[in-house]
């Protein structure tokens, strides 16, 4: 992303600021600022827009900043206010589990719910840690985990911002009050309410803690086993990887499934038998292991992007599968836009409408 040039956005003395110099100045902070925007907004695409707007605002306001205070603090102020403006005018982002009870059987006529603002996955491969106070509550990768980001979406904007700025980024209550044009008392009150709500929705053991108990070889076995089970249509192999209370959701499809019986009924009705021929690539999303699924409908031709499947683990088993079906997620992960056919790879079965 390049900073808009003066001729594109004149005013407020921005003509005196060299766009190239400003881009170089903010470059070390861009990745963590983008992650902050994602946490606030629950969408990589919204985070792209918010960061673009925030950097444009910052560039325009740079002459007024004139080095007063920390550049990082000032940029977070601009980014947070930009996100709060967007939060105020948009619906909160959700996952299917937020909208209603689980389905007990596979839903064959499942259709996308395009009227819902869906939470999206986050490509975290090069997520920068950045500086933070030693007493922050959440590691940076913990703070992009699906459960945490989904919980944030239930908070009002001011509580969301206070929690992230204090518990993730390490700003003081006084600094946050100045950023948000409010009092320290109001920040502390918002922070307390936000912590209570998040504690009710986020598991005590983060995915980062779970992943630290698994060695790399075991983690590869889980990810490879999931992909191979789907490619081979192997229900028994998939069952062996799942917890008894596993959930599977597929935004933008509103239906979701809980428990081994319901999840496997869906799996047998759709991805294991009737969707088409699968190929997969391992990736990482939201600080969690993930698998990119590519689907081929016919007997020949390339495999095309289908879903980013984020795996939530409990111990060495998969407790949640969140399959983000929008192919628009793929570019942000640097994934190829197609996979070539490979002799003997995958299966081919024609899927009925609405299943996949």
UniProtKB/TrEMBL annotation:
Residues 223-320 form the SnoaL-like domain. Keywords: Sigma factor, Transcription, Transcription regulation. It holds the Pfam family Sigma70_r4_2. Residues 25-93 form the RNA polymerase sigma-70 region domain. The keyword Transcription regulation applies. Coiled coil: none annotated. It comes from the Bacteria. Residues 147-196 form the RNA polymerase sigma factor 70 region 4 type domain. The keyword Methyltransferase does not apply. PANTHER family: ECF RNA POLYMERASE SIGMA FACTOR SIGG (PTHR43133:SF65), RNA POLYMERASE ECF-TYPE SIGMA FACTO (PTHR43133). Interacts transiently with the RNA polymerase catalytic core formed by RpoA, RpoB, RpoC and RpoZ (2 alpha, 1 beta, 1 beta' and 1 omega subunit) to form the RNA polymerase holoenzyme that can initiate transcription. Belongs to the sigma-70 factor family. ECF subfamily. This is Sigma-70 family RNA polymerase sigma factor SigG.
């Amino acid at each position: 992303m390049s900073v808009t040039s003066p001729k594109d956005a004149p005013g407020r003395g921005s003509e005196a600021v060299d766009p190239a110099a400003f881009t170089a100045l903010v470059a070390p902070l861009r990745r963590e600022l983008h992650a902050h925007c994602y946490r606030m907004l629950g969408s990589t695409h919204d985070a792209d827009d918010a960061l673009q707007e925030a950097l444009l605002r910052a560039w325009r306001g740079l002459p007024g900043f004139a080095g007063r205070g920390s550049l990082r603090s000032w940029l977070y102020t601009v980014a947070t206010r930009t996100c709060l403006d967007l939060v105020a005018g948009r619906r909160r982002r959700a996952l299917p589990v937020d909208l209603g009870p689980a389905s007990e059987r596979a839903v064959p006529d499942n259709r996308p719910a395009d009227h819902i603002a869906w939470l999206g996955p986050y490509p975290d491969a090069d997520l920068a840690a950045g500086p933070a106070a030693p007493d922050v509550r959440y590691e940076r990768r913990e703070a992009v985990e699906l459960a945490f980001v989904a919980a944030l979406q239930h908070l009002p904007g001011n509580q969301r911002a206070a929690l992230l700025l204090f518990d993730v980024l390490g700003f003081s209550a006084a600094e946050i009050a100045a950023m948000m044009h409010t009092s320290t008392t109001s920040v502390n009150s918002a922070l307390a309410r936000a912590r209570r709500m998040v504690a009710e929705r986020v598991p005590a053991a983060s995915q980062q803690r779970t992943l630290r108990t698994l060695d790399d070889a075991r983690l590869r076995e889980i990810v490879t086993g999931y992909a191979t089970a789907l490619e081979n249509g192997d229900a028994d192999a998939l069952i062996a990887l799942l917890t008894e209370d596993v959930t599977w959701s597929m935004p933008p499809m509103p239906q979701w499934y809980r428990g081994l019986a319901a999840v496997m009924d869906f799996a047998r009705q759709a991805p294991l038998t009737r969707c088409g021929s699968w190929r997969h690539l391992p990736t990482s999303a939201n600080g969690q292991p993930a698998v990119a699924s590519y689907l081929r409908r016919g007997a020949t031709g390339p495999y095309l992007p289908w879903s980013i499947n984020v795996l939530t683990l409990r111990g060495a088993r998969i407790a949640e599968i969140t399959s983000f079906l929008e192919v628009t997620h793929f570019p942000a992960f640097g994934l190829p836009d197609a996979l070539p056919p490979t002799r003997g790879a995958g299966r081919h079965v024609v899927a009925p409408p609405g299943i996949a």
